[in-house]
């Protein structure tokens, strides 16, 4: 296999994970979670979201969390930003990076953002320009890049259309999201073949949910195609409120197991990640979905016998 | 991706799954389970095991189950056979195929079979000769082909040594088992590269457990290397009694989702498999581990709201 030697994991658990959990984590616990994540070797943490609390009440404490976390140098602390009002608050809370977002699928975009794809571009552009004027790096998320809960399979051309626009706005990178977790490696290959005809692999990160169990297969295919940045969430947190049955992001610790065993360097310590995942289990009051944590629980219960 | 157009799933749930479940399924329920599986489009079902009930009490009713199931033509009904005494009983119960088994790892073989690898060969050869004399096809399992709970990583040479012997005995195919579910695609590639230097891909089936979440990644790599036969267990049943934390076989329905979406033909109906998995959940009194069944449960609970 032709594989990269180093990859970067971008931790989205505190944002993409917690925003979809029914239990609302206390602000102090979120702060402690981010601080634990800062000790794992991760160099990117998406801490929270500035989407209006009416839509995401779980993350209404975005400012408080960003102000209370202990920041480590060499770690980028990012937040999701829907519009200029959100950007303003995020800049006051001193984010390192702004993430803008929209969908490749017209109907998912409409349901999620209440605008057509075309109407969304200028809103994102305002945020991109504003963030860059403030000296911040900008990341663009494209959701539903393979499947949409309303439209089914999404053609690579639909993704290209949005990627072109975001890269015209000069975002630093695009995270391609299989938001409802339906993709398989043949589809990932087809999508990336189209995108990589036009842009270098460094422009993209892959963001997989594990609804159907295929996330790691898609990550291996992406790796083989030269992608070196992957979003994941501690404990496989999250889901998608608009897609029934959707489970969470691919779990950071499951991705880490795969990379460690394949000899691909991440700079992340498994034990530190498992410690943070154990903290999340305690605070959410339920077992998380990852395979590595299932083993941890099993070993602990064995010791208790 | 260069992929085969057709693959065969070999259902091992009634044997490799149920032998490791704490809840002992009633004989009539096992019969009903096999009968449900016979309606899915599967053409291979490993029904039970003739290992002594002292070791596997869950499958003490091997003869009764084999005698009560409704056999469909075009389906091979197989059983695991440890020795000549087991073969004798299995032939009386009219099995279609005999599976013999041993480990690539010396210490796992010792723990599982209470013999060295070298001592095991003549025991297997007796069974192979006896089964073939009775006109039965024989399958050979090699366990711990990537990792061993006692020895760690297993070199391909250790697997080759056992494969050479089994193929000298003229078994029809060998199922290569990542018994404790620790493997990753680079290791699968390394193993298969060695084996396929010497033997055609048709001689091998892959048997993955999903302990670490890597089973489907290993299956995609195997597919890319020309393997077209895969063992799986309905609902991801099973585990390994000698490997703490080990979860079950890769789930038939998760494998089927992957193949269906990749456009690889299996001849198996997803809905029929989900029906059989629902039956298993009811009889074991717990949710099974597959991603597809998690979605089914989620959708049902949504409907009930």
From TrEMBL, chains A, B:
Record keywords: Lyase, Metal-binding
Pfam families: HMGL-like
InterPro entries in alphabetical order: Aldolase_TIM, HMGL, PYR_CT
PROSITE patterns from the UniProt entry: PYR_CT
Gene3D superfamilies reported for this sequence: Aldolase class I
A GO term for molecular function: lyase activity
Domain Pyruvate carboxyltransferase: from-to ranges: 7-274
Homology family: Belongs to the HMG-CoA lyase family.
Record NCBIfam families: PRK05692.1
Protein name: Hydroxymethylglutaryl-CoA lyase
């Amino acid at each position: 296999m032709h594989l990269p030697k180093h990859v970067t994991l971008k931790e989205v658990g505190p944002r993409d994970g917690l925003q979809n959990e029914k239990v609302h984590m206390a602000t102090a616990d979120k702060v402690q979670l981010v601080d634990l994540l800062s000790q794992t070797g991760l160099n990117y943490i998406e801490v929270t979201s500035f989407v209006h609390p009416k839509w995401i009440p779980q993350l209404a404490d975005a400012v408080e969390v960003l102000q209370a976390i202990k920041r480590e140098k060499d770690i980028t602390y990012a937040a999701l930003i829907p519009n200029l009002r959100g950007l303003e608050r995020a800049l006051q809370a001193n984010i390192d990076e702004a993430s803008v977002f929209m969908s490749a699928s017209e109907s998912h975009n409409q349901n999620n953002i209440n605008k057509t794809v075309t109407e969304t571009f200028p809103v994102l552009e305002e945020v991109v320009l504003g963030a860059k004027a403030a000296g911040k790096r900008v990341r663009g998320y494209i959701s539903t890049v393979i499947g949409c809960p309303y439209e089914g399979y999404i053609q690579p051309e639909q993704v290209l259309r949005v990627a072109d626009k975001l890269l015209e706005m000069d975002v630093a990178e695009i995270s391609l999201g299989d938001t409802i977790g339906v993709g398989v490696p043949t589809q990932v290959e087809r999508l990336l073949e189209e995108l990589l005809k036009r842009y270098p692999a460094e422009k993209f990160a892959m963001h997989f949910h594990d609804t159907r169990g295929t996330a790691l297969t898609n990550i291996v295919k992406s790796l083989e195609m030269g992608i070196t940045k992957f979003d994941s969430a501690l404990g496989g947190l999250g889901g998608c409120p608009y897609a029934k049955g959707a489970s969470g992001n691919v779990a950071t610790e499951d991705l880490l197991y795969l990379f460690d065993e394949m000899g691909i360097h991440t700079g992340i310590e498994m034990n530190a990640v498992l410690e943070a995942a154990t903290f999340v289990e305690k605070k959410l009051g339920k077992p998380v979905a990852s395979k590595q944590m299932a083993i941890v629980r099993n070993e602990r219960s064995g010791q208790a016998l």
